[in-house]
Amino acid sequence: MRPGAAAALIALAVAASVFAVPCGADPGAGLTDWPGSSFLVSSVLEAELTAPAPWAPGAVGASPGAGVRAAIGVEGLRPLGGLGASVAVSYRWLGYGAADVLPAAGAALALSYRLPLGGAFSARPVVEAGAVYSASASASASASASASANPVSLDLAVGLGLDARLGARNYATLTPRLRWTPALGIPLSLGVTLGLRTETAWLAPIAPASPRLEGIPALYSPDGDGIDDDFEARLRFSDARHIVSWSLSVVDSEGAGFATRAGAGRPPRAFSWDGRSDDGRLVDPAADYSLRLATVDLLGRREEAAARFTVDILVIRAGDRYKVRVPPILFPSNSSELASPRIGWMLEANKAVLARLIALFSRFPDYSIVVEGHANSVRYADPAAFDAEQRDELVPLSLSRAEAVRGALVSLGIAPGRIAARGLGGSEPIVAFSDSGAWRNRRVEFLLVKK
Questions:
Q1: Global pTM?
Q2: CATH domain 212-311 topology
Q3: Taking 70 as the threshold, does the pLDDT of residue 100 lie above it?
């Protein structure tokens, strides 16, 4: 290969690499402020000069060579942020003998590791393995014979590059290499490449958590009777690695919060619950609730999942008796009328509660039933007035309501001798009479008593 041709080839390669470099951004942009994974894609265009290693067999009289190479690669993947991999293609005129060269096309896989040296400089050890192919059209007779017998050769190289940042993410590169191409009969050679390297920052997408809830009981009954007592939800995610905070909330049918758990980092795999609110109240019987799971990830994205469940009628054991907690059996104000056709929605709600009670009582055939009626006071602030209200209004009203419920249960199949009624008036409020929720005191409760 003539020196003038080699010089022209090198000039062409460097000029092409200059025009191939796009304008880059700040070298830290898009990486340092990205909370997820990021990496660099690099493109390199280089001119190459080679010469036989002085100590290599066959080096005496062998001619130098030249070539061009282009590579594209990636680096910056965690946990080895400086590790890079690239694929290179090349076309080289390999020095073979005195004034002889072999034209060869090659492809190789290269591994490197960036070592910062301070300022704009970094070193890059590199190991390269690939193959070259030569048709030997312009080789000497001896070279042609060798190349014809072995047109493809293993091509191995090691090197230590030096990168100098020119601005943004553009670098000038200088890489000495030691190369071995055995099958073509090329002696061990020393080479150096000079070129330009351009890097582009890429931000790996952060997958959404996509939370979901599994295993929630459709019917929940935290009353200790061994049936549907346990509440444990399984928390599942498509990808939980990037979650920074989470919360679990139990809300009632009106959307009001009942119980909450929260934390930072990856959520637990399961949520166990005893059925009590944050202030110790037990869930209301025969009421609908929802469990809501919310997550926030590194990007601030909030995702939610929700699942509904229903609380069963609760049977709370107290010694040899059971107290049955049911949803309110509804009565018009100052009335014991249980099934008023004038208020259709109230009638349907009471029918549903009574039907569930019949199914419940069938599980306790050895127990008698006491229906207890309760009422809400409006004269609670004056003890004397309250006593009079209790005697003259509340006890009779609560008793008539208990008897109305007893009659309805008997009509639905409960033996009359098994069920009794009594009225307690306002003597056992469950909410302070002054509270906005004092309407809860107007209720009917049930006792199961061992016969």
A1: 0.55
A2: Immunoglobulin-like (2.60.40)
A3: no
